[in-house]
Design goal:
Length: 658
C-alpha cells in the first residue's frame, strides 16, 4: 500500500507545474547563469586591470629613454661633482633608471597572470554557455515527457487507457523512474481502478474543499461550540522505518535524468469537449470534402479555419495516416505544421516516406525545439541529418551523452558509424558507459582489426560482456578479443566449442602476421568450419560449469565461501577494489609459479582471466578474514573455469596448494 502511495505521490508531483525534475533543471539553469554572470564580471575586471598595467609599462618604457642620456654625462661628472647635490640627485636617478628593466619584467609577468585569469574566466563562460545550451534542450525534453505523462494519467483516470505496457514504461523511464520502478508504476497506471482513480479523486475533493472553504478572520468561542463542525479525524499513517520496503526506497529518484526545451505538446492531448458558439458547418464541410471524418474533431480543433484547411490539405497530400490524425486532432490547428514538415525534409534531410513511417515527429516537438536540437547536435559534433527520426522520438539526451562518452575516450565515429549505430547510441547512458568501461578494464577496443568500430558490443550488458571475455581468455585466446572484438557479439559458447575442438584435433587455426595474431575464418563461423571439414559437425566441448564448481567445493571445503560466491553475479557492480594490497598479497603466494599477460594469469598450460580472478579475490577478502589466502586464490582461479577434475588437480599441484 505504502509502495503504491509512493508511486502515486511521485506521479502527482511529476505532472504538476512544480515538478521535482523541472525544479531541478531550473536550479541548474539559475546556477549556470550565475556562474556565467560572475565569470563575465571577473573577466571584465581582469581586462581593465590589464589595460592599467599596460599603460604603466608604456609610461615607464618612455621614461627609460632618459637612461640613454646618462652615457653623455660621464665627461661632465668631475665638474658636476663640484656642484654638490646635483651629482647626488643624478646618481639616485640613475639607480632608479637601472631598475626599469626589472620593473617592466614584473609588470609583464603581472599581465601574463591577469591574462591567464581572464582566459580561465573565458573557459568558465564557454562551459556555462554549453551547459545552458544542453539544459535548454534537456528541459524541453523534460516538458515533452511530462506532457506524455499527463496524457497517460488523463487516459488512466478516464478508465480508457489504450497504451501498451512498453509505451507506459518508456514514458516513465524518461521522467526519472528506473526500469524496475517504471514496471511497478506501469501496473498502477494500466489498472487504475483500485488505486490511481481513487487517489486523484481524493486529491480533487481535498482541493475543492480548500477552494470552497471561506476565510474567517475571527470566530467567537461560543459559535464554535454551538455549530456542528465536521472534522476529518483520520490520522495520518505512521510509518516506521521497518515498514518501509526496499521497493519503496528504490522508487525514490536515484539521480538527475537529463531531458529537452519547452515543448508545448498539447498536441498530444485529446481535447476536452466544450460548448462553442462558433459555427463550424463550413469548415466541417471542407473536412468532409478532403476525405476526413469531420465527427472525429471537436469544435476547439477548428478555431482557425484557414490553418485547419491548410493543414488538412498538407496531411492529405502527404498521405499521413488518418487514424494518427484522429488520435492527435490538435495537429490540424498547429500553425507551424508546414514549417515543421519542411524543416524535417530540408534541414534534417529526411524523406516524406520517413515522416509517413514516424508521423509522431510532427506532434512531438515545436518548430523552435527542432531548431534547438539541430544547434545542440552541431555543437556536440554530430551531423543532425545522420540521426534517424526514431531517435528524435525516443529523445536525444541519451544519444548525445553516449556520443560524448566515446569522444572523451578518444573513440571517433565516422558519419556512416553514427547513422549505422544510432539505435545503440540512444540506449541508456548508464548501461552504455558500464559496458564501455568493462571493455576498457579488459584492454579491449571497440575498433576491429580492419579499423571499423564494433559499437554493437556496447549494447551488451556489462556483466554478460565480462563473462564472455572470461570464457575466451580461459581458453588461452585473449588475442581473439584483442584483434577480433566483434566475436563478443556472437554466441561465445559455440565459439569456445570450436576453439577447443580445433585444439583437440590439432588443426592450425591462427598465425602471426606483422606482429598481429590472425585467426582463420572458420574459428569465427561454424558454417565455414563445416565447409572446410566437408561435413556438418555438432560440438559439445565446453564442460558444464556447475560440474566444475562442485569439484572446487570438494577441493576447498569451505561451504560458507561458496554460499557467497553464488551471490557474486548479483553483487557484480558492488565489488570493491579497495583491497588491492591484500589482492597482491594473495597473488604473492603463487610466487614464480605463474606468468602474467595483459588479461591472463597463466599457470602451467592453463590460462585464467586476470580480471575475473582479481574480482573474486577482492570480493572474498571483503567478506572473510578467516580463510587462508591459498584457498581464496585457488577458488578465484578455478571457480567457473570449466576445467576437468584432472586439470584442476594439476593447477593445485603446480601451485603447491593442498
Amino acid at each position: 500500500m505504502n509502495s503504491t502511495k509512493s508511486i502515486l505521490d511521485r506521479i502527482s508531483n511529476l505532472i504538476s507545474d512544480d515538478s521535482k525534475i523541472l525544479e531541478d533543471f531550473n536550479k541548474k539553469i539559475e546556477t549556470s547563469n550565475t556562474n556565467k554572470a560572475k565569470a563575465e564580471e571577473e573577466k571584465k575586471n581582469f581586462e581593465e586591470e590589464i589595460t592599467h598595467v599596460q599603460n604603466d609599462i608604456d609610461d615607464i618604457t618612455k621614461a627609460s629613454e632618459v637612461s640613454d642620456r646618462f652615457s653623455d654625462l660621464e665627461a661632465y661628472m668631475p665638474g658636476l661633482e663640484k656642484v654638490g647635490k646635483s651629482v647626488s640627485l643624478l646618481n639616485s636617478l640613475k639607480e632608479e633608471l637601472d631598475k626599469i628593466p626589472e620593473q617592466i619584467e614584473n609588470l609583464e609577468n603581472k599581465i601574463k597572470e591577469l591574462t591567464d585569469e581572464s582566459d580561465n574566466r573565458s573557459k568558465v563562460i564557454k562551459e556555462s554557455e554549453d551547459e545552458l545550451a544542453k539544459l535548454d534542450v534537456d528541459i524541453s525534453d523534460a516538458k515533452r515527457y511530462q506532457e506524455n505523462l499527463i496524457e497517460l494519467i488523463d487516459l488512466s483516470k478516464s478508465g480508457d487507457i489504450n497504451k501498451t505496457r512498453e509505451e507506459v514504461v518508456e514514458t516513465l523511464t524518461h521522467v526519472g523512474f528506473t526500469e524496475k520502478e517504471a514496471v511497478a508504476a506501469a501496473k498502477v497506471i494500466l489498472f487504475p481502478e483500485d488505486d490511481l482513480i481513487p487517489y486523484f479523486e481524493r486529491a480533487a475533493a481535498k482541493k475543492e474543499v480548500v477552494e470552497e472553504t471561506p476565510v474567517v478572520e475571527e470566530v467567537k468561542e461560543e459559535q464554535v461550540e454551538e455549530e456542528n463542525v465536521t472534522v476529518d479525524e483520520t490520522p495520518e499513517e505512521n510509518v516506521s522505518l521497518e515498514e518501509i520496503t526496499e521497493e519503496e526506497i528504490a522508487l525514490e529518484p536515484e539521480g538527475e535524468e537529463i531531458v529537452l526545451d519547452s515543448v508545448e505538446d498539447e498536441v498530444k492531448l485529446d481535447p476536452v469537449d466544450v460548448v462553442s458558439s462558433q459555427d463550424t458547418s463550413d469548415i466541417r464541410s471542407t473536412i468532409e470534402s478532403l476525405g476526413f471524418d469531420q465527427t472525429r474533431f471537436n469544435d476547439e480543433d477548428l478555431d482557425n479555419t484557414e490553418v485547419v484547411k491548410e493543414n488538412l490539405t498538407l496531411l492529405s497530400d502527404k498521405d499521413i495516416n488518418k487514424e494518427f490524425i484522429y488520435s492527435y486532432p490538435s495537429i490540424i490547428s498547429d500553425s507551424n505544421l508546414k514549417d515543421k514538415y519542411d524543416f524535417i525534409i530540408n534541414t534534417l534531410n529526411k524523406t516524406e516516406e520517413d515522416i509517413k513511417l514516424s508521423p509522431s515527429i510532427l506532434v512531438s516537438y515545436t518548430y523552435d525545439d527542432l531548431d534547438k536540437l539541430v544547434q545542440v547536435s552541431k555543437q556536440t559534433g554530430i551531423d543532425p541529418t545522420l540521426i534517424p527520426l526514431s531517435v528524435f522520438l525516443k529523445g536525444l539526451q541519451s544519444f548525445f551523452r553516449n556520443y560524448i562518452v566515446l569522444k572523451e575516450n578518444n573513440i571517433t565515429l565516422e558519419n556512416q558509424d553514427i547513422a549505422k549505430f544510432a539505435a545503440i547510441l540512444a540506449i541508456n547512458p548508464v548501461d552504455f558507459k558500464k559496458s564501455l568501461q568493462m571493455l576498457m578494464d579488459y584492454k579491449v577496443s571497440v575498433k576491429k582489426n580492419d579499423g571499423k568500430v564494433a559499437l554493437s558490443l556496447l549494447a551488451i550488458n556489462s556483466v554478460e560482456l565480462a563473462n564472455k571475455m572470461d570464457m575466451i581468455i580461459n581458453t588461452g585466446e585473449e588475442d581473439l578479443i584483442k584483434y577480433y572484438p566483434e566475436c563478443l557479439a556472437t554466441n561465445v559458447k559455440e565459439l569456445v566449442d570450436r576453439i577447443l575442438f580445433l585444439k583437440k584435433s590439432e588443426i592450425p587455426y591462427k598465425t602471426v602476421s606483422h606482429n598481429k595474431v590472425v585467426y582463420q575464418a572458420f574459428v569465427l563461423k561454424q558454417e565455414v568450419l563445416d565447409k572446410v571439414l566437408e561435413k556438418k559437425i555438432e560440438l559439445n566441448e565446453v564442460l558444464d560449469k556447475d560440474e566444475t564448481n562442485n569439484y572446487v567445493k570438494e577441493l576447498i571445503q569451505e561451504d560458507e565461501l561458496f554460499e557467497e560466491l553464488d551471490k557474486l553475479e548479483e553483487n557484480f557492480e558492488m565489488i570493491s577494489n579497495s583491497f588491492m594490497e591484500e589482492h597482491k598479497n594473495v597473488l604473492k603466494s603463487m610466487k614464480n609459479k605463474y606468468k602474467e599477460t595483459d588479461n591472463s594469469y597463466v599457470v602451467g598450460k592453463y590460462s585464467f582471466s586476470k580480471n575475473k580472478v582479481n574480482r573474486i579475490i577482492n570480493y572474498l577478502l571483503a567478506i572473510f578474514n578467516n580463510i587462508s589466502n591459498d584457498k581464496i586464490l585457488l577458488t578465484a582461479l578455478l571457480y567457473d573455469s570449466r576445467l576437468s577434475k584432472e586439470d584442476m588437480d594439476n593447477v593445485a599441484k603446480t601451485l603447491n596448494i593442498k
